[in-house]
């Protein structure tokens, strides 16, 4: 299986960490008799030779040896080798170029090996081969025949599940031959098959032939879930594999206790996609299941639904909140994690969060094995709902012996109810040494908190920071900008800061200082020279900030109109957007701005929130934007869904956009 490996010039090849001369050792390690050595070798292949899905010349050179390993019965853990080959092949990526295309071609060329492995004595190998043969063997009739044969003779439940998933993939990939696969799935979705396989078949039917689903799929799925829970064996606490300090080992230890059930439900939810009413009913039913494992799987399923679709989620959110009273630590932690990212949508769970904190106040602060303590997730989740019952817990944290640096981030969500916290926040900020290397970490949440509270008594503390921080302090500019926002929020109450603000005008913080000075003093003559000059600097954040500041000046910013008009033609999307918004506010020129804003709205969904906020400021004068706002408010899909990745604030940002759209339309 290693014939010719020493003739390959590995030293001339590369992988993620440099020379590929260690690849032969990794390949030989995959055939080791020692389980830990095999896992370490596989981890090395993923970590270097196929790092984060990349393909190098050494990756391509490894493919023949991986195929040779996959067919040798004496090699243990060959399923992992097949999975590696599938990943290198790109899992169906048809539009790749260069080394990725060559890797896919090489795996396709060897796909006959996967067909042979469908009957391998090792069930784990048969399981991985089922998906590989559909992805890479370009003979649809043969593939369908192989799957039909294996479904008939296979007796291992996990392999049958993999075959079911492969039938669904086949039906989606080869529509011309889909009927045969769909018929097999329909047969698997009923007796005499067990509940797990029937659930898997229903999930695949939902994705490729929804017309073949039962008339009321949700009650059927929930009944099968209950049957499956009764038949499921007790979960073992022992990991299924060697105890290695590798990424593969860590991922194995983090797997759900019922990984198979988790995958079944994920498949069902993904297949149902925009059938939100069915998905909410399914999720609510899962969350009411008697088995805590099923409920835990349901909690982990919920973020994908909440982050993608706009709907009424009070029932499932309340049921997630109810899991906080469970004795199962995994279930309770999963529920807290889900609620933490829901912000205002978590209101139906607020009573449960409050009860948990009342029963266990130590959860207000989380102490990590490494790193600084942080605000406890239950308290963070309660504060993000805007519930004033979070305030006494935050006050206790601020008065306690361990005060997390992120405590201030919870305050803006509480509105005026958080006003009693201002003195403690102010004292803590005032007590920080201004030359500390970690000043940004310690003050970074306090300044926005006091800004949100509009705390005029914090003005001297902000002035002290602006005047007293050393010039070479790490992240000083970010702290200065945050302190200036606090002064701007205080408005005329910050008049004592005027000398400090004027002193900053000639420096790098000039635009932020000018904006604060305008908010405090209202003198356009003092700030216009700084803002006009900033419009002329080379491309960067400064020009955009200057445009935004001119917009806030309104008609007083008219001397900046030529520069703003030029900026609407900038190559940078955000510069164009900020300049267009400013034009509208300064000159009342919708005709010069609306096309720019409409194009940005379509090009980048993250521009929608500031554009909707502009429509609120304009009132009836913003009518040219109202068509965009009405369409957004009517859309069932969240504006950032599917834009690539996701963030912990996605739901909150989308709910804020909806509120802003409705507010602007109400002013029309």
Oligomer: single chain
| Level-2 CATH architecture of one domain | Alpha Horseshoe
Secondary structural class: mainly alpha
Shape: globular
- Work out the helix count: 36
* Main sheet: strands, sense, barrel: 2 strands, antiparallel
Q: How helix-rich are the residues, as a percent range?
A: 55-70%
Name the poorly predicted regions.
250-255
Can you tell me the CATH topology of one domain? Leucine-rich Repeat Variant
Beta fraction: under 5%
The mean pLDDT is 92
So what's the CATH class of one domain?
Answer: Mainly Alpha
Terminal Cα span: 74 Å
**Which sequence of strands runs across the widest sheet?**
1-2
| Total DSSP E strands | 4
Computed Rg: 30 Å
What does the model show?
This protein has 668 residues and is mainly alpha-helical. The protein starts with 13 loop residues before the first strand and ends with a helix. Helix 1 packs antiparallel against helix 2, helix 8 runs antiparallel to helix 9 and helix 34 runs parallel beside helix 36 (650-666). The longest helix has 17 residues, at 157-173. A hairpin with a 2-residue loop joins strand 1 and strand 2. The relative contact order is 0.04. It contains 36 helices and 4 strands. Among the domains are: 1-138, Leucine-rich Repeat Variant, CATH 1.25.10; 139-234, no CATH class; 271-404, Leucine-rich Repeat Variant, CATH 1.25.10.
